[in-house]
Each structure stands twice: as structure tokens, then as C-alpha cells.
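Predict the structure of glucose-6-phosphate isomerase.
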Amino acid sequence: MSSSPAFPALPVQLEPLAHHGMMRGGNGRYEKFLGDLAGLYRDGAAFEAALSRDDGTPVYWVESSTPEEGEGALTVGLSVLEAGSVGDEYFMTRGHLHRKADRGELYYGLSGNGVMLLESVEGDSHAVEINPGQAVHIPGHWVHRSVNVGKTRLATLFCYATDAGQDYEIIERAGGMKQLVVRDGEGWTTRPNPGHRGYRHV
Ligand SMILES: O=P(O)(O)OC[C@H]1O[C@](O)(CO)[C@@H](O)[C@@H]1O
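Done. Here is the predicted structure for glucose-6-phosphate isomerase.
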């Protein structure tokens, strides 16, 4: 016998365990392996070399809670990104614009050291650090990606409108994001991506 979902949806207690890379109480999980990320990094030879050494563990994963769907519903989750690099680019998420582009997102840094790379379709770019105890509040209409610029796992708690959706193709069609987040001595810097064609002219 099938049962209807409860209305209103039941409250959920979540326990993000950043150092264990998991969140208790969620109902969703996905993982991205190096092999899923072909074309993301500029240095193809460095990517192939990294793939040949790959230990088969995910580069990043997301554990989330979506207790209800529809307008006004929220998805909350833990995003975990390993430390590392391909060529001089730090490990990063694929990045996306929300399909409902006016939907914003909140990230709260739990552990590790990251940068949120934020770009508008009009051509503005911002790289905002996210360290433990810092939040980044991303309004709608920003293409966004997280980058781990530290030496340990980056774990962030996030929240966005469930109906936001994700458009990954906008970055692929543009030849990647406008800026790259790269090693700079012991730190990080941004450098223009020579392959970027602009988000509007695609
Ligand atoms: O969806 P992407 O771009 O692969 O990256 C995963 C990211 O997406 C989110 O799950 C939600 O926007 C982030 O928390 C996470 O860092």
C-alpha cells in the first residue's frame, strides 16, 4: 500500500559532521569522481596524469536534505571537496547557474579553506574566501563554484531553494568560467581563463 507524504512535511534534525564528511538526517547524496570531471581543468595532460594515479575515491560529494518539493521549499546540505590540484588549478566543483536564475544560495564554512568563485552573465567576477565560521550569501543570477584552496578538506553547509535547479551547460558553452583559481606560492590567486568566450555570446 502506498502512503501519501505527510502534510505539512515533517521537521528534520540535521547533524553536519564536517570532519567525517557526512551529514546525519539527510535524504540525498551524490558523488563526483575525477573521471566525471573531464574538461573541467585547463591542463589536459595534468588531468590525464592525475587520472592515471586516481585512487577511485570521490573528489567531492554532497549530502542533502529535501523534505518537500515545490515553490518555497529549501534544500539544505553538506558539500565536501577534497584538497588537491590539477596542474595549477585547485580542486573545484563543476559550478552552475541556477536554472531559475533568481534563486540565491547561502554557504557557511565548517572546515577547510575555500573560495567561492562568482560570475555574472554580464562579465563581473568575484572570488570570496570562505573559512570556518564565515558565510557567503550569494544573491540570484550568479554562476557559482566552490574551490578548495587549502591543504585539508573543505566542508560547507549550504541552503538553496529546491526549485532552483542547476544549469551546468552555461559554463561548458562559455569555455569554462571567466577566471581560474590557481596556486600562487603557498596561497591562491585568480587568472583569466584564455578559453572563456563570455556567457552571453554562446
Ligand atoms: O553542483 P556542482 O556545481 O557540481 O557542485 C556541487 C555544489 O552544488 C551544491 O550542491 C548546491 O549548489 C553545493 O553545495 C555544492 O558545493
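DSSP finds two helices and 15 strands in the chain.
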